[in-house]
Amino acid sequence: MSHIQRFPSAAKAASTNPLKMSQPLGAALAYLGVDRCLPLFHGSQGCTAFGLVLLVRHFREAIPLQTTAMDQVSTILGGYDNLEQAIRTIVERNKPAMIGVATTGVTETKGEDMGGQYTLFRQRNPDMAGTALVFANTPDFAGGFEDGFATAVTAMVERLVEPSPVRIPTQVNVLAGSHLSPGDVEELRDIIEGFGLSPIMLPDLSLSMSGRQPTDFTATSLGGVTVDQIRAMGASAATIVVGEHMRVAGNALELKTDVPSHFFSRLTGLEASDKLIRLLMELSGKPAPARLRRQREALVDAMLDGHFFFSRKRIAVALEPDLLYAVTGFLADMGAEVVAAVSPTQSPVLERLKAATIMVGDHSDLETLARDADLIVSNSHGRQGAARIGVPLHRMGLPMFDRLGAGLRVQVGYRGTRELLCEIGNLFLAREMDHESHDHGESHGCGGGSCGCNAV
Amino acid sequence: MLQDKIQDVFNEPGCATNQAKSAKEKKKGCTKSLKPGAAAGGCAYDGAMIVLQPIADAAHLVHGPIACLGNAWDNRGTRSSGSQLYRTGFTTDLSELDVIGGGEKKLYRAIKEIVQQYDPPAVFVYQTCVPAMTGDDIAAVCKFATQKLGKPVIPVDAPGFVGSKNLGNKLAGEALLDHVIGTVEPDYTTPTDVCIIGEYNLAGELWLVKPLLDEIGIRLLSCISGDGRYNEVAQAHRARVTMMVCSQALVNVGRKMQERYGIPYFEGSFYGVSDMSDTLRTMARMLVERGADKALIDRAEGVIAREESRVWRRLEPYKPRFEGKRVLLFTGGVKSWSMVSALEGAGLTILGTSTKKSTKEDKERIRKMKGEEFHQWDDLKPRDIYKMLADDQADIMMSGGRSQFISLKAKVPWLDINQERHHAYAGYDGIVNLCEEIDKTLSNPIWGQVRQPAPWESGPSSTLLAAE
Fold it and tell me: Average pLDDT of A341-364?
């Protein structure tokens, strides 16, 4: 799919300050949301080392990630031996509940047959039957981070989920896309549990990447959805699918289990959140809890107080496709003008973006498109370009290595939307409150004193 | 061709470890075969980038799929006093079609775009695994581009799967020897011109050393490659003396510069007081041996005497604070033992150090310095380190970022002494910086708080009266 160019990309040969990250990295993150899992890259050891460093810098957590350590000879002769040895070593040393394998550019260029290798491994290693194994094809030279995450989730659904003869009416599945932070997943759990429902999140980063304090050293992920829970997803009453890139996994789950799925393109914004709450009321047959009602009022109030600062603001956004959709959608909801939306890869969700310019590109493209913008929203890699053109940067997405608590930020539901609104709104407000540049000319958008100034 | 290069760097007469091997062992090379499922560390391409990327005014273009640069750019603390071009990440971002049809044309177009848009003095092109497999000939493309564009375009043939970071360091050194060093003549030379190899100016460390060289009257002609400029690196062959900082990584460069240009080299270190003084002393002596004015030695001794008395005076206040504090030191080869004596001079007790990357010689030196009971761990598992820390066997761990969470999750103070660190620890001022950082973290009040049990963990105390 990725070779169908739906949106223009810059006609240049050198990608400059890349926005894109690789598929295996996305797959690794998805696997990290499974309890006692060890993700394994089938490739050269450098593939693992770079991915590891990036995730460590973002989450400020130990990241379990291993490698089949392919060298020149095994690359040419075939990697099965390395794969088998790696899995056996990991099981013997670390006793994980699951090993999630992601291929890389090296093994995909050679064209390793992963389906065949799975079967062969199981035949040759009956003593390892107790360890769940999931393989995902994630070549570095196609797609990107989000695609890799989606491929790994689909692979887990296809390999592990079992159809169930019974339905547990209070159990719901959530396929949580890569654009949801561990904090978002936690927020979703709170919201769903508030209706007396028990969610199974796949993957569940809120349990593994949220700053756990272990009582012993573990070389596997600590917390996350368990393999048994994944197997039991077939007994749920419904599946909530969050993000366009989760759609394939959602379809696979529905096909396999007949659990009806409900698709949400985003959960940031008032109407988007309303849609989720309405579904949860329906599924549970219960009214919305008082806490959510108060949160909705607070969001409506924040929109009323805050819209002054968003109206017609020119904002350039560069993020992974589904997060790009959620953020630009929210900004448009608030009356801001998205002057440029830059995505690292092609995705069907780009068709639904509301932005003056939409392109597949990198941070240097963003730098060009954002010259007249009031704000840039992107990951930490955007900071060099933002500084060069003198436009403030609001950090979102991954990697975010120059801020604390990157993993636990919340931007879904009423409360998360309000937090995002206030964070971005405060950037504009701070500029307007800066009386050095407070001349009440045409550019001042406080609407006559709403920002606390004495404008007439 | 690449295989010949690899055999060549493995057969390194300047390397003590290699010299101790039998002919058969030598042929096998020095890459430890990595164990699938239990390996850690970077690849050869990673190692090549570490050596060359600090050349700040050059463009660094990675020929490969997105993983090699997209996951990895903008993640090192090497600093530049001028051009920031090295911080811009360039990649050909190879797609499926490039894998099938070959990426050579795209590579040439990318080089051309970079030259036209940024006009750097040179472009370094890094080979990676995928185009190495599909057979993209980056040497030919670079040669063509050099002729066509009139700029040096240097192929760095170190795809990840040929070996470790250390091998990549050496292959990058070979690229400099083959294509860069000796291609530019300096405007003028002096009898005190030196070249420093293996110093990357992490957190600006070179800037703690350079003022002392200036004061003594030693000219830093060329640094490979911290705060480096392409033309300065290309002039390295006119140095009178070469200093090798991280001896294992680039020993091939020092030795071959001696072979080709007759420049003597020595191994030195900027870490720790006595090592720093030895380095300045050796540098001055060797320059004088090669014809520099004898007064250089006196000036060096003057600076050493002043700096040493100053640094010990500045470390004095830490002594009572550090008394009885035990340090676990985990880092690569040379740095470990360079720092030991200085830290002990400040009153710390060093329990032991890792010697995973140290040579036999290094280990012998540590044994002589510290005696038999001093621990030298070759391969300590993370779980064992965690246990030592959790059992209160040390007060602080100093290591690279990879093991930081072993220490922090055990709720034991930790200090970054590797490449991602934010503070400069080289030279005399650096050791004071290091002690200040140790003191800051040791005396931080959080440690007492975070070790408290949670309310639901504590025993049956007077819970009803828990409020203040």
Answer: 95
Specify the CATH number for B193-314; select among 3.30.450.40, 3.30.450.20, 3.40.50.12380, 3.90.550.10: 3.40.50.12380
Q: Among A139, A177, A180, A155, which residue's Cα sits nearest to residue A22?
A: A139
Nearest CA in chain A to B134: A109
How many Å apart are CA B43 and CA B71, to the nearest integer? 14
Residues of A in contact with B37 (CB under 8 A): 40, 66-69, 85-90, 93
Q: Do residue A71 and residue B134 have CB atoms under 8 angstroms apart? A: no
* pLDDT at residue number A440: 45
Q: Which helix (H) or strand (E) holds B145?
A: helix B138-149
Of B37, B41, B383, the CB nearest to A86: B37
pLDDT band at A442 (very low <50, low <70, confident <90, very high): very low
What is the dotted CATH code of the domain comprising B316-448? 3.40.50.12380
Q: How far is CA A6 from the centre of its chain?
A: 22
Q: Give the pLDDT of residue B343.
A: 85
Interface check for B305 against chain A (CB to CB < 8 A): the answer is no
CB contact under 8 A, B37 and A90: yes
Contacts of A93 in chain B (CB under 8 A): 37-38
Minimal Cβ distance to B38: which of A18, A75, A93: A93
- Residue in chain A closest to B104 (alpha carbons) equals A13
pLDDT of the residue at B418: 75
In this complex, the residue of B43, B98, B382 whose CB is nearest that of residue A44 is B43
* C-alpha distance from A49 to closest chain B C-alpha (Å): 5
Both tokens of residue A318?
A: 């560069």
What average pLDDT score do residues A16-42 get?
97
Domains and CATH numbers, chain A: 23-157 (3.40.50.1980), 168-293 (3.40.50.1980), 297-437 (3.40.50.1980)
The answer to whether residue A214 scores a pLDDT higher than 90 is no
Residue ranges for chain B with pLDDT beneath 50 = none
Residue pLDDT, tens place only, A38-84: 999 999 999 999 999 999 999 999 999 999 999 988 998 899 999 99
Comparing CA positions, the residue from A402, A440, A394, A444 lying closest to residue A420 is A394
Best of B129, B388, B446, B449 to mutate (most A CBs within 10 Å, chain A): B129
Is ipTM over 0.85?
Answer: yes
Neighbouring C-alpha atoms within 13 Å toward the C-beta of A159: 20
- Taking only the tens place, the pLDDT of each residue in B140-182 is 999 999 999 999 999 999 999 999 998 999 999 999 999 999 9
Contacts of B92 in chain A (CB under 8 A): 13-15
Q: Give the pLDDT confidence of A303-329 residue by residue, as tens digits.
A: 999 999 999 999 999 999 999 999 999
Q: Where are the domains of chain B?
A: 2-14+41-179, 193-314, 316-448
Q: List A136's β-bridge partners, or say none.
A: A102
Does residue B96 sit at the A interface (CB-CB below 8 Å)? yes
Q: Which residue of B has its CA nearest to A16?
A: B90
Specify the pLDDT at position B119.
97
Helices (H), ranges, B150-225: 165-179, 206-216
Q: E-assigned strands of A198-303?
A: 198-202, 236-242, 261-264
The encoded tokens of residue B254 equal 């020092």
> How far is Cα B145 from Cα B115, in angstroms, rounded to an integer?
10
CB contact under 8 A, A17 and B89: yes
Chain A residues within 8 A of B44 when measuring between CB atoms: 46
Give the minimum alpha-carbon distance from B446 to chain A in angstroms, rounded to a whole number: 15
What does pTM read for this prediction?
0.93
In which order are the strands placed within the sheet that holds B396-399? B375-377, B349-354, B326-329, B396-399, B414-416
A1 pLDDT more than 50: no
Which residues, listed in sequence order, are joined to residue B335 by a DSSP beta bridge? none
Cβ-Cβ contacts under 8 Å, B33 against chain A: 71
Residue A283 has pLDDT above 90, yes or no: yes
CATH homologous superfamily, domain B2-14+41-179: Nitrogenase molybdenum iron protein domain (3.40.50.1980)
Q: For chains A and B, count residue pairs whose Cβ atoms are closer than 8 Å.
A: 209
